[in-house]
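For this section, I looked closely at a protein sequence along with its fold in token form, which I now present.
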Amino acid sequence: MKDFIKNFIKSGMKAAGFGPLILVIFYYIYSFTINFHTISIQNVNKTILSSLLLAFIAGGISAVFKVEKISLGLATMIDAIVIYIDYLLFYVFNNWIELQIIPFLVFTVLYIIGYLIIWLCIYHQIKIQVKQLNHKL
């Protein structure tokens, strides 16, 4: 358990820096594309801290893959569920999505598609690496 917490914090700290960076990029794009209006300092602080925590949790949960007692399938399921809940809670908290059935369903479908695409890319890359290693043997 001690190693899990250590890995969680280490992975979370690596990912946390990207949350505010991505938020700034989105605000910058919005300002040019949809005539985004300025927001209050409190709202900026709230969204920066939220995106930092969101990224920390999403990055930190990858530590579950280093727990040897958990199968890859279970670790993937835990990872997917924690990241989904993490995103959903922060998106609702910041009013990035409305808490209604249609936005919720759209968010859920897009999350599942995005998660599957990422894992299929990872699977494909690992498969290529294994094939190259087997070829060298």
